[in-house]
Amino acid sequence: MSPSVCIIGAGASGIAVAKTLHQHGIAFDCFERGSGIGGNWRYGNDNGMSSAYRSLHINTNRMVMAYSDYPMPQDYPMFPHHSQIIRYFDSYVDHFGFRDKITFQTEVTDIRREDDGNGGQTYRVKICAVNTGKTDERTYTHLIVANGHHWNPRMPNPPFPGTFAGETLHSHDYREPEQIRGKRLLVVGMGNSAVDISCEAARQHAGAVTISSRSGAYILPNWLMGMPFDSLASPLTARLPMSLQRLLLKVSLRLAHGNQENYGVPRPNRPLLMEHPTISQDLLNMAGRGLIHFKPNIDHFEGHDVFFTDGTHDRFDMIVYATGYKVTFPFFKEGFFNVEQTNDLQLYRRVVHPDFTGLYFVGLVQPLGAIMPLAETQSIWLAKLIKEQVRLPDRTTMLRSIEAETAKVQRRYQQSARHTLQVDFHPYKQSIEREMKIMRT
Predict the structure, then answer these.
(1) Sign of CA dihedral 188, 82, 229, 205
(2) Domain match, 31 and 144 both
(3) Which of 16, 216, 240, 304 is the most buried (most CB within 10 A)?
(4) What are residue 84's phi and psi, to 5 degrees?
């Protein structure tokens, strides 16, 4: 039987889809540009898209991150190193026995919609062997995109006025401390990568590192009273009113480290849970020792001098832009869509495109927590849809739901590309589980 499903990517989300379809007896092709699975988590991945750096550890605990039916080894630390995560992914693929269904070193280069002659549509997928350049085309009725959204670096747009005379680097291209050692460093951004790189730089030399942030961030610890901080979240707390959730988190942060401003770390003007927080056990300690300083947004450059919006300025050798990523689908050409500037792809339940029958996206979310369990839940839903065990609402209902969800996100979060993919872990997971109860009639 020829596969009717195409999966693009064999990263953490793509292998969740492949395993689920394999277990449901659904024939599929999975194409991966690199020579191994794991995507962003494979350090030095030869697909050229990984942003993993040498010292990277997960910032959600291993119990929260693991797939539901394959826990991480008990001898792993609570927050494993990337090398342990990739071993876990490899073990997952081999345990469930679907590695032979993944075509490695094969890039999807173009996708076209075609009329199937029965009032429906199919997807003509062009693939190219990375090593030989040999191309092929195949037709599918279902297309599942799992190419990740942390690989195409986003730079400040519009760019800051003036010209910086020193070195510049995006966090996507940061790999090891040797790249930043001994340099007067400015890190632009205050997300997880920005803070990790800043702390690593502060350990490398006595000179202080400076973080420039437009809006700041709330800093969450990895641990609270000997427990992983993210294990405190649950379906029960997610059902509480937002004001009560905010109060509980505020109290927890006071117990964990007190007021972050006492360490010299600015606090955002917006309330808790209205900004995506940053997870770090080290930042407050480093800042309290004077090894990391903070500045507001950049105003302009003059040579090696960087001027900030508060009127101050300083000289730097190097700037690391930790300014996020564009949501990019290079295989969709003219006639599909382009969301690089806004990152705002209008999908029903963040998965289904209402105007493209059979087109789905997995892992295209930004939760406070791990993506992997959500990708797994999305995959189970898709398997049921493909087997026609459940159904989708009509297009009007889907569009109405998308509009309501977009308005909800815009009310809660600052309007920026960073927050367009934001979901609350437990409520979102439950929303997908509810979709699996909409049986075909």
Answers:
(1) negative
(2) yes
(3) 16
(4) -75, -35
Looking at the structure, do residues 315 and 331 belong to the same domain, yes or no?
no
* Least confident interval from 232-246, 388-402, 410-424: 410-424
Closest alpha carbon to 74 in 82, 63, 87, 85: 63
DSSP string of 59-96, one letter each residue: SS-HHHHSBTTBPPPTTS-SS-BHHHHHHHHHHHHHHH
Answer yes or no: are the C-beta atoms of 172 and 56 closer than 8 Å: no
Q: How far apart are CA 44 and CA 320, in angstroms?
A: 19
Structure tokens at 264: 């010299």
Which domain covers residue 37, as residue numbers?
5-151+325-435
The answer on 417 and 400 residing in a single domain is yes
pLDDT of residue 229: 93
Give the tokens for residue 441. 């009639």
CB atoms within 10 A of CB 178: 9
Pull the structure tokens for residue 72.
Answer: 């991480």
Rounded Cα distance between 231 and 63, Å, is 8
How many Cβ atoms are within 10 Å of 112's Cβ, its own excluded?
15
Q: 54 and 110, same structural domain?
A: yes
CATH (domain of 163): 3.50.50.60
**Joined tokens for residue 129:** 């062997």
DSSP per-residue codes, 284-333 = HHHHHTTSEEEE--EEEEEBTEEEETTS-EEE-SEEEE---EE---TTB-
Q: Is 343's pLDDT higher than 60?
A: no
